[in-house]
Structures are given as structure tokens and as C-alpha cells.
Amino acid sequence: MRFYGRGGQVVGVQNTPKTPCLRLNRLLFRKWLATNIPIQFGKKLRSVEEGERGVTVYFEDGTSASGDMLVGADGVNSKGE
Known about the structure:
Elements: E1 2-4, E2 10-13, H1 26-33, E3 45-51, E4 54-59, E5 64-67
Antiparallel strand pairs: 1-2, 3-4, 4-5
């Protein structure tokens, strides 16, 4: 079940068998995701490639990073592009 605010934006969800969800402490979840990973903030994604050996992301500054999985976690400040 979703809860909508003014303008039709989703402002919350409810855990149900049909729509399971987890509620997490944002700071603790970010720390857990970052375990043994050198995080660089402020990057802007240009493209993503999936292959047999995992995923590679390319950034607008010309750098790239590879790994086993990609977690999109840009949060409430996302530009939604």
C-alpha cells in the first residue's frame, strides 16, 4: 500500500504480503553498504554496462568502477533523470 501526499508524490509505504518492504536506519544502512568499499561522493552517472563478470559504471568525470552489483541509493535529492 502506498500513501500519497500533495501533488501525487509517494510519501510512504506499508509492509504487506503483496508489497513487502524494509524500514532501515539510513545512516546504519549506508555504513553497512560501504563496508570495505572506497566510496566517492558527488559522482554523476553517465552509463552502466552489465556483463558476464559483473557491472561497470561510468561517470561524467571519465572515471569508472566495477563490481558484482550496483545499488542505486541517491535518496531524496535525486534529480530523477
